[in-house]
Amino acid sequence: MGKVENLNSIYSNQKAFYGKAKIIENVKLQSYNTIVAEKNLVERTIKIYGYYSKTTAIHINEFLQQNGVGKLSKKEMEKNPILKF
């Protein structure tokens, strides 16, 4: 595995994610032990791999907002969207 960083809480009301959300190689979002979103730097898109839990949805929305994309609802995440950034 390449470079791994903790996802920082900037937009969320939570102070921190305490190592439960990580960014891998600057493109993949891992929540707990699951890859839940991934950026395609060439196409400038972010693919969401579904809705997992309320906490993971917070991690996904933080990742989206840090990449200039708005928040998604549970229903929107369940559609496995691909978003432009």
Structure overview:
- The protein has 85 residues and is of the alpha+beta class.
- It has one domain (4-84).
- It is 21% helix and 29% strand.
- The chain is built from 2 helices and 6 strands.
- The chain has helices at residues 54-66, 74-78; strands at residues 4-6, 21-24, 28-31, 34-40, 45-48, 82-84.
- A 6-stranded antiparallel sheet has the order 1-2-3-4-5-6, covered by helices on one side.
- β3 (28-31) and β4 form a beta hairpin.
- The radius of gyration is 12 Å and the shape is globular.
Q: How are the strands of the largest sheet arranged?
A: 1-2-3-4-5-6
Strand runs, count: 6
Structural class: alpha+beta
Largest sheet: 6 strands, antiparallel
Shape: globular
Number of helices: 2
Estimated helix fraction: 10-25%
- Into how many domains do the coordinates divide? 1
How far apart the termini lie comes to: 25 Å
Strand coverage percent? 25-35%
In terms of per-residue confidence, which ranges show pLDDT below 50 for 5 or more consecutive residues? Answer: none
Radius of gyration, in angstroms, nearest whole number: 12 Å
Return the string of H and E elements: EEEEEHHE
Mean pLDDT: 96
Topology:
Elements: E1 4-6, E2 21-24, E3 28-31, E4 34-40, E5 45-48, H1 54-66, H2 74-78, E6 82-84
Antiparallel strand pairs: 1-2, 2-3, 3-4, 4-5, 5-6
Short description:
The protein is an alpha+beta fold.
For the structure shown, list the relevant keywords.
single chain; alpha+beta; six-stranded antiparallel beta sheet; 21% helix; globular
